[in-house]
């Protein structure tokens, strides 16, 4: 086990004019660790996710990532070409709306294969075999490989998006409300699948969610955000079982019991 | 042999921000240690803070004051001040925990729920499943249930899955929060025997047992939690 | 006053030509890169080759000999109109013989006869962006070109194989130019793709509506994209040309009657006529020539 984090976040702030997106956020993410960022709409959690995943330039602060050669690179000092390469090889990004992360008019197989082709894979048979394997791992029947995601249900689309991201064996995956628009029963299946894949592949992940049950099931550690600030952070079951900050107590006490 | 766990001057209170910030002290000045190969039992009436002490040692409750020193991979670590990553490592390698209720994950079969702590420590999945099956069989969980997720099991069945999950590893410290509460006599006796085997193996156990019979059978010493009552210290 | 005096030579004003020539020079300097240019309104509708016409108008001189083809033929509406246009506005010599031309403007074909050094082939391009149908955002496709992110191009070929069992794209087949830019060769049949590779002629591409010019300088590598296990192949025809008996040529289907009768003939009319003049005969040559 390595004794260095995978991602180092230092004093990240994002201001929209005078309005705070997120303010002065620092943490380390370790290999194999799943971090949940929770908070209500407008708390800045998606802004933070976008700043970390190079989708949004932060106003100040640094994010450095430990590349496969072991060296840390400041994401915002890399060239755009390097960042984009990182995004489609060593990283994944799972959008809340699968249509944002999939190509809706090309087949499921090509959606999964695209990242392989982007890194120079030029053997159709091997690409298709890899796509078939990944569809199986996200529980999509093999005979749907040539169907377009337009013909898929919401849950299937989300699973396809996950396969598309994981096919290149990324080390870090960002997820923005991955179970957001899904029915509860479909959510459970997806969460369980994600949980299994994260364990099996030893992925590090940063998951933005407003759903504490999702955080409980998937994450090791949590950050609770309110108005752009971190109000509490710690081990997931510690934060949920013994919340310290008034806002976290409010969140935890607002969960409906079934 | 090093003392596996030392609890020193630990205090804990809850601040209820939603109820105008009232502060509820739970324990204060809690000090004790565990010995390898022995089972200590937390004694005292309901609400005395027994569960809170277990949860602080497991890291799922914050510690306001004091130290919890754990011998983790031959190092002494203060769990009360450890970062989340260290707590996770301690849970993986050093401290096992049987909670009062199983927190079932949807869709994961009972066998895999039990095997998971071993798999997390790098054991091959097949070996871990074999060990899990042996434990479930010993706890008389019908074999037809092994492939099913425990969410729909009865209380007693869930608790046996939970016990198997806690006992499958050879953690040097094992915390037990009323493991026998919903078990019948035959299964209680099996758990009693399993605890005895853990002691035999040099594990330091700390438990809460409301069942007098089990407590008498397993306890090497009783730690009276009323000694740590905050009122007494305030007085 | 003669009719031609009402226009500047070759219709466009000299400033416009200079602007277009600068775009052409840039395009030649960066083979396969789409150079934006300020496309002008031309006295013909978009889709009739306004891009090609502007490029031709900017490079043509009084001594040039112009050939214009549409689908390989010199005698179809588009070819006849554009040829007449340049005769009128530039008073240049025109020809139908590939070997005699210095500038050949083309829609959808490359002549069968191997082009020589000194010749310029001007393509009319409807949609210059090869990534367009998979990535509609122009900002994104430009970035993909800049960063050489061409995985998406293979997604299209993957889809072909997944649906048809082979790469079914038969025209506008994407190529990589000099190992760098992926380029749409305009809707020429993929049969013509190998002719672009290391051609001795200068190849210029003009897209009037989309306002882009790109180029393949002489002796430039042009590779058709493919998969290792599904290599690039050109179309094969079962029979030779019914008129000239030519085999290694691109054929058009011609319907002969309303009872299913048909024949396959050279799409390149000049090539076909040349072969027949040399005495080559296909199996329907007698009837067709007589008809």
From TrEMBL, chain A:
Keywords: ATP-binding, Lyase, Nucleotide-binding. The keyword Nucleotide-binding applies. One of its GO terms (biological process) is organic phosphonate catabolic process. SMART domains: AAA. GO terms for molecular function: ATP binding; ATP hydrolysis activity; lyase activity. The keyword Nucleotide-binding applies. It comes from the Bacteria. Residues 7-252 form the ABC transporter domain. CDD domains: ABC_NikE_OppD_transporters. It holds the Pfam family ABC_tran. Belongs to the ABC transporter superfamily. PANTHER family: PHOSPHONATES UTILIZATION ATP-BINDING PROTEIN PHNK-RELATED. This is Phosphonate C-P lyase system protein PhnK. It comes from Nitratireductor pacificus pht-3B. The lineage of its organism: Bacteria, Pseudomonadati, Pseudomonadota, Alphaproteobacteria, Hyphomicrobiales.
From TrEMBL, chain B:
Belongs to the ABC transporter superfamily. It comes from the Bacteria. Keywords: ATP-binding, Lyase, Nucleotide-binding. GO terms for molecular function: ATP binding; ATP hydrolysis activity; lyase activity. InterPro entries: AAA+_ATPase (IPR003593), ABC_transporter-like_ATP-bd (IPR003439), ABC_transporter-like_CS (IPR017871), CP_lyase_PhnL (IPR012701), P-loop_NTPase (IPR027417). It holds the Pfam family ABC_tran. This is Phosphonate C-P lyase system protein PhnL. Residues 5-235 form the ABC transporter domain.
Automatic annotation (TrEMBL), chain C:
The keyword RNA-binding does not apply. InterPro entries: PhnJ. It comes from Nitratireductor pacificus pht-3B. Pfam families: PhnJ (PF06007). Transmembrane segments: none annotated. One of its GO terms (molecular function) is metal ion binding. This is Alpha-D-ribose 1-methylphosphonate 5-phosphate C-P lyase. Catalyzes the breakage of the C-P bond in alpha-D-ribose 1-methylphosphonate 5-phosphate (PRPn) forming alpha-D-ribose. It is an enzyme of class 4 (lyase).
């Amino acid at each position: 086990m390595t004794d260095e984090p995978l991602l180092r976040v230092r004093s990240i702030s994002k201001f929209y004019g005078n309005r705070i997106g997120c303010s002065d956020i620092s943490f380390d993410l370790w290999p194999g660790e799943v971090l949940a960022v929770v908070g209500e709409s407008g708390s800045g959690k998606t802004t933070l996710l976008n700043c970390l995943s190079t989708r949004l330039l932060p106003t100040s602060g640094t994010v450095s990532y430990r590349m496969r050669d072991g060296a840390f690179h400041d994401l915002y000092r890399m060239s755009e070409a390097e960042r984009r390469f990182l995004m489609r090889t060593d990283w994944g990004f799972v959008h809340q709306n699968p249509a944002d992360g999939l190509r809706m008019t090309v087949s499921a197989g090509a959606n999964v294969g695209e990242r392989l082709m982007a890194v120079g894979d030029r053997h159709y048979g091997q690409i298709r075999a890899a796509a078939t394997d990944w569809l199986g791992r996200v529980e999509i029947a093999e005979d749907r490989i040539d169907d377009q995601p337009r013909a898929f249900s919401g849950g299937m689309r989300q699973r396809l998006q996950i396969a598309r991201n994981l096919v290149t064996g990324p080390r870090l995956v960002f997820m923005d409300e991955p179970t957001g628009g899904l029915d509860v029963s479909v959510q459970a299946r997806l969460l369980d699948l994600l949980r299994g894949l994260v364990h099996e592949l030893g992925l590090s992940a940063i998951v933005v969610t407003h759903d504490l049950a999702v955080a409980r099931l998937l994450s090791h550690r949590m950050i609770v955000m309110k108005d752009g600030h971190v109000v509490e952070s710690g081990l997931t079951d510690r934060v949920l079982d013994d919340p310290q900050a008034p806002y976290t107590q409010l969140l935890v006490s607002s969960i409906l019991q079934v | 042999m090093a003392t596996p766990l030392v609890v020193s001057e630990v205090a804990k209170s809850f601040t209820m921000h939603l109820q105008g910030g009232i502060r509820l002290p739970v324990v204060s000045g809690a000090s004790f240690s565990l010995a390898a190969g022995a089972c200590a039992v937390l004694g005292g009436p309901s609400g005395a803070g027994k569960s809170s002490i277990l949860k602080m040692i497991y890291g799922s409750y914050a510690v306001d004051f004091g130290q919890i020193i754990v011998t983790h991979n031959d190092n002494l670590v203060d769990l009360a001040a450890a970062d989340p990553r260290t707590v996770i490592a301690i849970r993986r390698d050093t401290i096992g925990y049987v909670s009062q209720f199983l927190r079932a994950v949807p869709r994961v079969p009972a066998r895999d729920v039990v095997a998971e702590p071993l798999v997390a420590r790098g054991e091959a999945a097949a070996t871990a499943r074999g060990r899990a099956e042996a434990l479930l069989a010993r706890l008389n969980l019908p074999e037809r249930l092994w492939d099913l997720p425990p969410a729909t099991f009865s209380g007693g069945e869930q608790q046996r899955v939970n016990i198997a999950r806690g006992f499958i590893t050879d953690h040097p410290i094992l915390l037990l929060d009323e493991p026998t509460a919903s078990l019948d006599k035959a299964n209680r006796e099996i758990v009693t025997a399993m605890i005895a085997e853990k002691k035999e193996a040099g594990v330091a156990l700390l438990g809460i047992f409301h069942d007098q019979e089990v407590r008498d059978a397993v306890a090497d010493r009783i730690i009276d939690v009323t000694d740590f009552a905050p009122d007494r210290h305030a007085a | 006053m003669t009719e031609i005096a009402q226009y500047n030579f070759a219709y466009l004003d000299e400033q416009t030509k200079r602007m277009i020539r600068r775009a052409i020079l840039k395009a030649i300097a960066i083979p396969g890169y789409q150079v934006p240019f300020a496309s002008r309104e031309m006295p013909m509708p978009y889709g009739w080759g306004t891009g090609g016409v502007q490029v031709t108008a900017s490079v043509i001189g009084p001594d040039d000999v112009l050939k214009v083809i549409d689908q390989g033929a010199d005698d179809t509406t588009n070819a006849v109109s554009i040829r007449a246009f340049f005769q009128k506005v530039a008073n240049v010599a025109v020809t139908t013989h590939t070997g005699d031309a210095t500038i050949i403007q083309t829609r959808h074909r490359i002549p069968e006869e191997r082009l020589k050094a000194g010749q310029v082939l001007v393509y009319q391009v409807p949609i210059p962006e090869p990534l367009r149908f998979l990535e509609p955002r122009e900002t994104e496709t430009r970035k993909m070109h800049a960063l050489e992110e061409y995985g998406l191009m293979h997604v299209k070929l993957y889809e072909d194989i997944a649906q048809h069992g082979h790469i079914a794209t038969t025209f506008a087949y994407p190529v990589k130019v000099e190992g760098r830019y992926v380029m749409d060769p305009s809707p020429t049949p993929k049969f013509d793709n190998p002719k672009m590779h290391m051609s001795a002629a200068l190849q210029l591409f003009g897209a009037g509506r989309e306002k882009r010019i790109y180029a393949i300088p002489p002796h430039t590598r042009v590779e058709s994209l493919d998969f290792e296990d599904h290599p690039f192949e050109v179309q094969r025809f079962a029979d030779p040309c019914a008129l000239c008996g030519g085999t290694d040529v691109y054929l058009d289907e011609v319907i002969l009657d309303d009872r299913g009768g048909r024949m396959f003939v050279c799409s390149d009319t000049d090539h076909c006529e040349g072969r027949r003049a040399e005495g080559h005969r296909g199996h329907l040559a007698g009837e067709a020539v007589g008809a």
